[in-house]
Fold these 3 entries.
Entry 1:
Amino acid sequence: MKYIYKYAIALFLGIGVLATSCNLDVDPRQSIDANGALDTPDGLEAALNSVYARLRAESNYGRDMFALSDALADVGRTTNNSGRLIGENNNNPGAHFTAGFWQNSYFAINEANLILDQISSGVEGASAAQLSRWEGEAKFLRALYYFDLVKVYAYIPTAVYEPGVTDEGGVPMPLEGSITSDIAFTRNSPRASVNEIYTQVYSDLNDAINLLSSAGRSGPQYATEGAAHGLLSRVALYRGDYQNAVSAATAALGSSAGTVLGGMDYVSGWRAAEHPESMFEVRIQLAAEALGVNVSLQSSFTTLLNLDNKNAQGGWGDFIPGPRVLDFFGLSQVQIDEPGTDSNNWDVTRNDDVRGFLYTTGNTVRNAGRQIESIKFVSKAGFAFGDNIPVLRKSEMHLNRAEANYHLGNVGDALAELNAFKGLRGLEDVNLSGDELLEEILNERFKEFAFEGQRFFDLKRYGRDINKTYLSANNVLPFEDFKVLPAFPQREVDGNPNLNQNRGY
Amino acid sequence: MRKILLLGLAFLIASASAFAQGRVVTGTVTSGEDGLPIPGASVVVKGTTIGTATDLDGNFSLNVPQANNTLVFSFVGSEMQEVNIGNRSQINVILQPDTRSLEEVIVTGYGTQPKREVTGAVSSVKGELIENLPMQSFDRALQGRAAGVQVRSSNGLPGGAVNIRIRGVGSINAGNEPLFIVDGVQLNNQANSSLTQANPLAFLNPNDIESMEILKDAASAAIYGSQAANGVVIITTKKGKAGKARFEFNAFAGETEPMKYLDVLGGSEWYEMRRDALTRGGDGIARARALSNMGRLPSNWQSLSPEELDAVGEALPTYDWQRELMGRGRLQNYEMNVSGGDDKTQFFLSGSYNYQESSFRPVDFERGTFRTSISHKANERLTLETNINLSTVSQNVPFAIDGAFLGNPAFSASAVLPHNPIRNEDGSFNEAIGGVLGQNIALVNEFNSGSTRRNTVVGNAIASYKITDNITYRALFGIDYYFLQEERYTDPRTPDGAGVRGRASAFNDWRSRFINTHTVNWNKTFNGVHNVSALVGYEFVSETRQGLNGQAIGFPTFQFRYIDSGAEPVFVGGFWTGYRRQGAFVNANYNYKEKYLFTATARYDGSSRFGANTQYGLFPSVRAGWNIAMEDFLKDSEIVTDLKVRASWGRTGNDQIGNFAARGLYGAGGNYANSAGIRPTSLANLELGWETNETVNLGLDYGFFSNRVTGSIDLFDRRTKDLLLNQPVLWTNGFGSIANNVGELQNRGIEFEIGTVNIDRGGFQWRTSFNFTYIKNEIVSLFDDLEFIAGAAGQQLAVGQPVGNPPFPGSSAPGAWFQAEYAGVNPATGRPMWLDADGNRTYLPIAADRRYFGSSLAPYYGGLNNTFRFKGFELTAFFTYEYGAVVSDGQYNFLRENGTRLTLNALREVNDRAWVNPGDMTDIPRTYVTAAGNANELRSQGRNFGTASLLKADFIRLAQLTVGYTFSPTLVRNLGLTRARIYAQGLNLWTYSDYPGYDPEFVGAGTGQIPITRNYTVGVQLGF
């Protein structure tokens, strides 16, 4: 009897152990193994979406490429409604493009590199046209990210400050994807020179132009041949390669990407969900992708929720036009009806420049009271805080070409193009030459792209001081000041023996 | 309890002795311990079977035969006493407690052990010590109770997270949570709440706990192998006892209140402060702008003189937003339990209800529990047992657990500008709030709603079978299951909800964990001196968790608050995750005459979380002890009652990392233009394996003067090797980090516990217990000869420096503070200064100027408990203390800006200290802001930069003060009761600290966290 018990128990124990000790394999259900993840057309397509989507981040085009960079420049001033952008507006130490910009951009570049690596080793079941399109789009995106990184973290070739200091160069430029711990641990990319980066950006954009000319898809939310020409035109202008800037601008203008608008059509272009001028824009498709009330472009620039009812509480309106912008368009507050407590009864005065319609008065919900605000981004996609972001507008091609022609000595072409452009905006022709003509072209660029993040880099590529005496006395950021460049994220400098920090940090 | 137990028996003996002849002797038996009468003590005539038992008042009356002259008095747990009667007919006896026979039994890994034989570092906290504390979870109640166990409330959320660290912080990224085991079921204490902190350990009514054992050294814990690196807390719940059904009713109720309101500026003071700041910033219209910042600029301001503008500012009123939003809360607790049974079957049933409000309405905690414990002896060999704990917890959630959100009352209450009225004259909410906090927080708080409900089942079924008299097989099947439902509604009447016409979110989260343990136990004594026992076992744990959540916007009216009424879905989400673990273990004990004690254990454990090549790990341990007090030369010593030295070494493992951290994965992310995106989410590390903890422990247990002085001392060196470190990867390489086994962390320390009976005379007793812990935490090495890894803002993980305290379960340890040292204010200019690398003062410190300034982990902590008893009265005063933590308190930092950077309110003590005139020596810079709102002095860092914002978080706190009275049993017997006790209790009544923020006891960023509260309760306990 005793033995039977023993056996029974032993059996019980044995079954208990066997039944449960099969294995320890547990597989995730929301992720797939990195190995082979991109080796299907659907997988590769999805991975490419992520590279686009990273442009949407606050640190990139979601806010900083536009709002933060304009705050650094002399476009406007802060309201202190939420306290955001004040430090940047005053060029305080450390208040500049963030570590998140670096991180997000390099993550995107790595994803693009992994896609390009996969394409070069083949994608099972993919057609040649698919391969071309993917490669073209990935190269366009990689070029855009590198161009943004180098223009932020390094001096622009047309104006390098370096008396007494060694040229720290550009930014690290890995071109091979990192998906194994080997590369992740050991690759300490040094700063490539600024020239090397521009050369690489040229090469990627030219590849993109070739590949997308036949295989591209349409739509400003995706990279196209026209968008690649457009971006190349801007890159060449920054590089001081004016011949290429002209030819690329011409090719871009000849492409099917975007339309140059004039008169009130231009103003209504800003009310469309998809800007007709866009050669490439960052798409915010869903309310869930919007950056929300704190950091979206809409919220950064205006307190309005939409243009139907100015009283509705919208964003913070943290960053508003400064005196130069107000002056460009003759903007001042005016009450148009009674009672004055209703924000719908307020607007602004405007001059002949149709761009004045991109500004109006906000509401009094926030601390700073009613202010004149930019309404380039104001719920035009149909939901709040989620406007699509035009990275490249076709109008820029005229201004790029005019400026490049000026530097090439084709002053007549430059003036003619400027005047034609002014006509589109409701302005009289001018008759200028020499420095005055260049100033007028740059002013036109300022007017056209205020609140679109170009001004800071326009000042930087001409090596100009940033004059903000309208904020406080002596508030001038000399071009020589180290705060023109942001710090590299300290962790990257600490962790990479080959990486030198920017001057002053 | 034991007194009541013997009552029945006593009556039996009494009736049996009624027939004897002789003289009658009467008297009273009282306890030398507390001076109270002992009911049920046995009184026997020596050498006969004649005897009786004392009644409820300790009285006896016995017919003693003439031939006998000696009575023997005895009672369980007391020393037997013989008394010669002589001619007396009245005899009063005081029985002293028998310290040697009162053998304390300690629950250890997969078994129990007499305390005498314990050779590891184990602290035991009895349930009665934490009885009736108005705390929602037992982990909170451990604060200050045991050396080596550091407990901090994360914040004042009732039922919120509790930070518990056994012997320091042993891991940087892989979790520092001890293993909690309730009735053999290993719990997962991750809260997973999206909206609040819902401490999973709050499922258990702390009053259902019989005892808690804390296995501190690796050798004691190693039998739990892979889970035990951060120590083990074993909770034993109350079980049934044979006998007539006994009922206990227990109730307390009271209030919570804020410990502190911050002293902030009033309306006119803030105006003056702002006006002066703007003036210093060079603003030509400082008065007007100050008024404008406050939303109080008269429309005709340009025609007003400075004096007239000042008059407007000076006339601004002050409203106390803190007292509007913070306040007293109710708390109450009711419970009832019944236990009983016969010699074959015992049961324990209990039910309880607990409710507590925080100092910020409507945040609260409501719990109902039901517990049943049944054991049944099926036959001589087979015993069946089951313990089931059911509980449901509801919490009204805060706007946010922490953070500088406008809508967060815990942030805004002290920061909103004080001149803003809370309500309009007609009683409606004032919605025109001046200042950066432009929302009426009272309105937001009133209209928004959110709740969390957690239903938990923790239970087991156990069968144990005696194969032979000394071999027992035991099988345990356990479950830890929870279902978490959460919802939140952002009301369209609030500013955040207005733009989207209301926003509703819902989250559901299921987690089930199964555990299956089989053990076989054997013991034998050879030649009466060699005691040998052994245990072998196998255990399997599997856990899965999945969730489903969604959000919608666009609600018809504010009355529609459920997600399906929303016009537009914003997102739907879901997830699944899981892991498995299995292990085999063995434990062998040998002792010689209970003098020389040896234990060895080993466990072989595998976890699905690790790389395919490194899934399994071996965790051995050895312990030895010498019971010196059992040696002949001390056996009869009056002075030395207990003396034992012990030494142990053990290795334990830690796998508290992500379930798939070893895998290289692509996950969903980066959807674009209506099509799905994927991106790489982690780098593969096939070699990822166990983080191991090795602890050497040397200990001494002592008891002197008949154990009037008892305690222990432990020295330990705990080294964590192969740290599961999120080794940083250069962002340029596409990832932030990779989990890797690198580096070493060390916790060295000393623990000291002492308990004394200071006075025990005439029924008056004063007992003290004190514990002290010192731990030196230090990173020994990182990787690749690296000296440091940059951590969160201002912190760094560096070799030779301590790490900080990881705030929440699952969060990583922050580094030591690594910042430029603040050098106070330049007396000439009022500008803040820092020290550069050479020790010179500078306005613009750079990265190279940073130095180390300690961490948020307190190296010194402990507790002091005093109890006084006299007759039925008792008084308990329990203190806890911490010393040496350096923290940054986000809430204080915002207020320390003194209304410069943002238009937030300021602390009076900060504003009063601010530099005003040349020559002022102070640490607070001049209040300065430009017209554009820039609060940085030109070419200068911000005023909170560097160590300017670091605070010492030292404190001594009267954590508990209880006054109670137990009615004499005679008195309450007439009411049909066996026991009646009333008490009044206060928690956190007094704190010694010079901390300028709400409270030094918090973890995390400190911004907008609900501070912990002071509680008052009165209660009653009845037994019948």
Entry 2:
Amino acid sequence: MSVPSTTPRPVAGESVWPRLEPLLPQVTKPIQYVGGELGAVVKDWAAATVRWALMYPDAYEVGLPNQGVQILYEVLNELPDVLAERTYAVWPDLEKLMRAHGVPQFTVDAHRSVRDFDVFGVSFSTELGYTNLLTAIDLAGIPLLAADRTDADPVIVAGGHAAFNPEPIADFVDAAVLGDGEEAVLEITAIVREWKAEGSPGGRDELLLRLARTESVYVPRFYDVDYLPDGRIQRVVPNRADVPFRVHKRTTMDLDAWPYPKKPLVPLAETVHERYAVEIFRGCTRGCRFCQAGMITRPVRERSITTVGQMVQQGLEFSGFHEVGLLSLSSADHSEIGDMCSGLAEQYAGTNVSLSLPSTRVDAFNIDLAQELSRNGRRTGLTFAPEGGSERIRKVINKMVSKEDLIRTVVTAYTNGWRQVKLYFMCGLPTETDEDVLEIADMAHEVIRAGRAATGSKDIRCTVSIGGFVPKPHTPFQWAAMERPEVIDARLKLLKQAINADRSLGRAIGFRYHDGEPSLIEGLLSRGDRRVGAVIRKVWENGGRFDGWSEHFSYQRWVDAAAEVLPAFGVDLDWYTTRERDELEVLPWDHLDSGLDKDWLWQDWQDSLSEYEQDDCRWTPCFDCGVCPAMDTEIQIGPTGKKLLPLTPINGLKLPTPQ
Amino acid sequence: MRFTSHRDFARAFERALRRAGVPVAFSQGFTPHPKISYASAAPTGVASEAEYLEIGLREQVDPAELRAALDAALSPGLDVLDAVVASGGSLADRIEASHWRIELPEVDPRVLSAAVSAFTTAEEVLVERMTKQGRRTFDARAAVIAIDVVAPTETPSEVAGVPCAILELVVRQVTPSVRPDDVLSGLRVVAALEPPVPPRVTRLAQGTLTAQGAIADPLDADRDGATIGGH
């Protein structure tokens, strides 16, 4: 005879708030767990047929502004029979309390247990969120390993840029989607809806099989990986009939047809970005060889000036934000960026709404743009990214920006009233020497010298910010060896000395950098294969959380876990990171199709080593990267020739319309 | 809403001003700020039914319309109850005392009554709290004008079926301010009262203190014969 349980089994979709609320006074920033954002949607659980929990696996303050999650949240919730809620990584203080009190991973919208949902979608911008994924799965009460899950568990789907190589998390996720999400989530929803309507035939396995058959959802369990005696991959092959050999990325072609977010989430809590952000285009063909985002989001697809104008107007009216971010991989490259900025500046003149272009190429910034950006009084920060210190290394990475361009651009900014600019560089690039990095100091010195000469003022500054290079899948550098952290750290030390060698100039230059160790771990996770999953799990079991946060990241924990786990497979941390791959090696992501032709990538890698530059296909002939024919897509750029019309000024109070 | 910090609220309020189209005045300078002054904000973790603030405007608006527009623009849970045209003088000066309700789930009302008696009979109850100046010790007794254990006339918010003692407090605005948690610390000092679960605190009212020890609406002074026009 069974003993009746004293606690009643929780009802699916029931709020855990009554159990969560008493814990909140005991944690930092409890507001981040409360929800109630403007734009948040709470729907009736019982009335929905397909239910999604969407996660950005970082703290609320970082995850909430994420465009991808906001777009999918809105697209899904627009469907009458679909419910989508959001969940974020909880800080270790709350995690501890949740474990002690049996509170599961919850959504912030209606505080429902994540385990109750049909699909649990996780968006990875960076691999450093992997340990947070494990925390969320475990707190949700879902088995950590996909193989152990039952029909009572949600299907866990990874998306975002890191999903272009989901192999390190293949043990933990049920599926991964490559590329643009808005149409993909609708297709997945339709498959889940149909399968549920049929009475869930064949259970979880059948559902995953149906997803895999779309050829755009990767289901790791349907692929076997064989290894060679030396540790390299021999092959990756489907282990089921009708599962495709390769899984293709998704591309949303007409951005004007998908004008999201329409109702941006406006939180009560403070977050990293407090602005209405609109993507003005996707994709980039500048061809920077280190840039995974530029490679995997091709081709360039512009959103038209008129759609951008309309989105900004509605987004600001809805949100009350006073900053507009025009996002893309290189915003000044939009074919109508000038008209867009002047039109918006004109429309919002005298309102204290400011404009920002988060990614601006040195060679595409000019005086007109500078003036439009600063017209409403407030100057948002300007960051330029020459990426490499020397002309030679910029040829290697195909960042075709000259020193003269940089000086001219920064001087333009200074003479237009900016007193501070940020310059971004990378360290640890392929073929890099100490001299390449030391030239950063010369460049910064010259920036200050020219800025002082042009403004006649000593009150100008620049910040040199250095990031560690991490070779990424689906880029020409996917074969490259990483530099050792000690070498990087030594170079950065030399650079710091060189910057401060001239005390007058050095005083005006800020220097910010990260040491080489976190980059090495990011490198392990970026180019890892399924065997790296055991390292992630070990790190997580040893307390690894929030690896993207320097105060939580522990290099030693990763090194120890790798040393404990990897020798059994005949490989080690160096094998994944500082080892150069050869042309014929099967890479863990070769069966995942970003559209890029592997032969072209190899050729571009060889061109890189011979310092040969590749032009942008928007202005010169196609260079056959393979994306357009493989994905049946094409470049979509303007100009449309349209202008933004002045807005009719809306004066007076906006009174609520009587119900 | 109780977990909203003052900074969070201020940000949300400024956005609501923009959404509602309120012609708010801005400070001069490199980064203009809207002219808003907040009076005696409730601590984070405390709910409130009575918060007050002043807004400087560029042009005159109808207070009733301002109230309706702002209320509609704010998130649910943040409600604008009233707006009046200020007749001069500082709003902060009219906030002399606050009325609080403290729910103490799983605390026996008799135990609470005994602790309150000990508190009221004491001349002085020294408590410690971290302030911006560091750890400070101050008296939590003198500022307390009234402290009563009240009968739970209605079910305390959101928690059902759990015994719960309820305390009502009227506390004078002093420096350093004596907050509800300081009074609870005081009860711990005098009677070793340790609530097993975090108490829920709500501010019921704040305003001018009448001779009878009651709290009057600080906006009353502006209601009759108020001068027309912004300030």
Entry 3:
Amino acid sequence: MSQRTNPDPAAAGEVTGAAAGIDSPVKLAALLEEHDYLADEGLATAAFLALRMGRPLFLEGEAGVGKTELAKTLAAILDAPLIRLQCYEGLDAAQALYDWDFARQLLHLKAAEAAGVTDVRALEGEIYDRRFLVARPLLRALETWPCVLLVDEIDRADDEFEAFLLEVLSDFTISVPELGTIRAQTPPVVVLTSNRTREVHEALKRRCLYHWIEHPSFEREVAILLRRLPACTEELAAEVAGAAGRLREADLVKPPGVAETLDWAEALLTLGAVRLDPGLAAVTLGALLKYREDQEAVRRGGLLGDGLATRAGGGSGRA
Amino acid sequence: MPEPRREAREGREAAGDDRAALVRAMTGFARTLRAAGVAADHQRTQGFLAALRELGACEPRDVYWAGRLTLCSCPDDLDRYDRCFAAYFGGERPAARRAPPAVTVTRFVLRPDEGAGERDEGGEASAAATASEIEVLRHRDVARMTAAERQEVARLLGMLRSARERRRSRRRAPSHHGALDGRRTVREAVRRGGEPARLRFRDRTEKPRRVVMLVDVSGSMAPYADTLLRFAHALVRAEPRATEVFTVGTRLTRVTAELRHRDPAVAMDAVSAAIPDWSGGTRLGEELKELLRLSDPRGAIVVIASDGWERGDASLLGRQMERLSRLAHRVIWVNPHKGDPAYRPLTAGMRAALPYVTEFVAGHSLAAYEELALRLAGDAARNVVVHRGRPDA
């Protein structure tokens, strides 16, 4: 059945071509940069190897360092759809792999009954057909090509789910008992992310390339701000990145990630800021820090007061 | 084949030799990593070699990233990897072979004589204790035991089969009530020739409630650490998927994987090798903060086994406990000193933590651990096996 495999070899060749054009991590980093994603050497090498070796990329790191964003950008580079599976507790095969369209199956049965078909075997053959199968993200990823599959926050799913995922990611097949095995001709590009609230099973990790994403260096964060927010001045970017860097070293419940830094800078720009002044910083703090305790700690500790005015311009010496 | 081909062949062979040498050097590197505790197994080593092929050139940075991406699997590995990389390649050509770096392993040793106030007459006897001896042993403070008595307690803890409190999960399973189960209803209808006469249902299932246990392994807790870790081992053995164990001292170490070995002796060896900060100080506040970052205590029972002897900032500990109490289902604090009727929680750390503790219990004797096991079992308590001596024995 045509839907079960990647149908068009010509189309396949085309995109292999697109990925084949990426012949080094440096080249990939340049492509990522064209799409406004600034990756360091390690991340670029990780993504490059994931594309070339056809292995899933397992990304860990603090929340907001750009794990999910990388998958989106890779999809944009490959001009492929992004298929996202957000994990949560209780996620099961019917929500992640496939499900049968029961309502249509029952309708079909009624119709068959009305037509006088009573042969159980024939009925089964009709009912368990691909057209009654609803593809969920993992099955859709095997049937869509090219595509980037993002399995987000795998640590939130329970470990039974990892068993399903293991089968899918090791052979790129899904077995439907009533139908047979569905196989991807060419494996999709797979990105898994985890916030490390739970140790993911060793067998799953073994099939992946593992990369830990750090918070960006001061210079990189300034570059990211300037690239993503064209209206942002260099002074403001340096001050915002400097403040974010210092807050990451302070004792906070949730230190800001790049995502928060971007939100904050955007909030400041919306209010017409050219430089970071303590008054503006105080009213926009909610974009950067999402915990009341953190906001209070920052206000109490004067982390956004005089310290900011005197040190932020110099980048506070972060490497 | 005519002569002119010979040179080419030799060239090819030389290249083959180079490649073989490279493969040897790289598998040697993987071996070094394994010795340092990184799970760089055969499959990962194959991945490493494949990654090197993809990256083409053998620049040190390519080797570095190819190895790091394929051979490591958690943040703890990264430090070890960097050390091994520096030691093995030393910034020189990848082929240069060096001796594997020394691995420091802290062995967990029982200190038999420490605090042994009273000695049993059969101190050396290794025979299992009788029921009445067990009864006496059950209430004895672990810190004041002889080596043989501790061994017996360890043996009994090894037999502790603890049950776990249940909670409703989001997963559904076939049931007599609940939501309509389309899949089984259709199957049933097909069997009856198309008439959906019998509806099938699925309902929420139950799961064991997660336990996150923190064992303080600092100097002041040394007499209890072994027993506590054995208790933790019993928890992991009973519910390997719903238990996380960390040790705290000057740093936080996740030891769940080590405790998954079924054999208590093997598990304890693995744990002691994994703990880098044995018998140091405690920075509970800092560690707790790290724990909140590393592990999700939402809905879990958090067990903290410590005497609350905080070397760091007690107010930080208080703040982290407040946060923990808002996330966790319950927080149980196990303090070995609480077994002493004269004990008052006076240390700054203990005072800062107590307002946020749901249950404050003793943890000095076998009886206290059994009691703790019952607390963790909740409604499932009837399945707990406790060791009691018969009074007539």
